[in-house]
Amino acid sequence: MAKFDANSTLKRLQNRYRLVVMNDDTYEEVVTFKLSRLSVYIVLSTIFVLLTGLTVALIVFTPLRMYIPGYGDVNATRELRELKVRTDSLEKAMQYKDQYLENVKGVLQGNVTIKLDTTTLEIPRTETIDD
User: Fold this and answer.
1) What is the pTM of this model?
2) Pairing with 93, which of 26, 45, 63, 111 sits 20 to 30 Å away (CA)?
3) Which residues fall within 8 angstroms of residue 71, CB to CB, at 6 or more apart?
4) CA-angle at 38, arms to 37 and 42, nearest 5°
5) Where exactly are the structural domains of the chain?
């Protein structure tokens, strides 16, 4: 197994390389860059962080966030919750009213069935004291 040497890795990152862009027809040097692996890594990392930051800023500070599933307006969510509670209470009130009207209709038509209590109560006798 190869031994890891931090100095050789750092030196390898700091080695200088030359990047030359040449004209293919005339072999004239158009641009020359002096680069190292470390500088290329730093530049690419910086570009990645900047693009990520710009994307997040674009989504957070513009109306594009409305297109993300589950990310809605706080006021709209609260209003939907209030409307749901109000709708449920109205449905319950309508059920009570319908039941009341059915009972009134049954009483007016004479279709009332009265359940009589037919259970007998056993009342204990009070004891009398004889002198």
Assistant:
1) 0.49
2) 111
3) 65
4) 120
5) 1-69, 73-107
